[in-house]
Write a structure and sequence with these properties.
The protein has 163 residues and is of the alpha+beta class. It has one domain: Peptide Deformylase (Alpha-Beta Complex). Helices cover 23% and strands 28% of the residues. It has three helices and seven strands; from the N terminus they run H-E-E-E-E-E-E-E-H-H. A hairpin with a 5-residue loop joins strand 2 and strand 3. The termini are far apart. The structure holds zinc ion (ZN).
């Protein structure tokens, strides 16, 4: 497992569980990616950063727990007092661009859905650094990096607005 920029600007393909061996395959991949993420001192890593065009990422939450998110979806963005999306702008780095920092505006809180390596659906609310990391990795799955995000160069469907 190593970093490979070939699919950084392409959308990952959806993952399926058609074969008996798929669970083991995803569990193995998850372990390999967590190992690489820790080696590079990151808190998140997407398959698209490793030359694998997949809706698949791993992250380390603020409480130290590791999570594997497959086929991630955003269900909801948290509101501010005016009923708009509560946004926050913070400097982010990315393992795919060593040494680079970009100011990135993202929602403070999110409700998301994804599948674990077994294919079980998970619905979760995240905020702060966990929400930011999740959204950074979700972006990777869609072929978006902090370079495009910081310049606002993303399609309307990826702009953070209430649906
Ligand atoms: Zn990144």
């Amino acid at each position: 497992m190593k970093l490979d920029p070939i699919y950084l600007n392409q959308r990952g393909s959806n993952c399926t569980w058609n074969r008996e061996t798929d669970k083991q395959k995803y569990q193995f991949l998850s372990n390999q990616m967590i190992e690489l993420m820790l080696k590079k001192r990151g808190i998140g890593l997407a398959a698209n950063q490793c030359g694998l065009k997949m809706q698949f990422f791993v992250m380390k939450k603020e409480d130290g727990a590791f999570t594997t998110c497959i086929n991630p979806e955003i269900l909801n963005l948290s509101d501010d007092w005016h009923g708009k999306v509560r946004m926050e702008t913070i400097e982010e780095g990315c393992l795919s661009f060593p040494g680079e920092k970009h100011m990135v505006e993202r929602p403070y809180g999110i409700e998301v859905r994804y599948q674990d390596y077994k294919g079980s659906k998970v619905i979760e609310s995240l905020e702060g650094i966990d929400a930011r990391c999740w959204l950074h990795e979700y972006d990777h799955c869609q072929g978006i990096t902090i370079r495009e995000r910081s310049k606002g160069e993303v399609k309307d469907e990826f702009k953070y607005a209430k649906s």
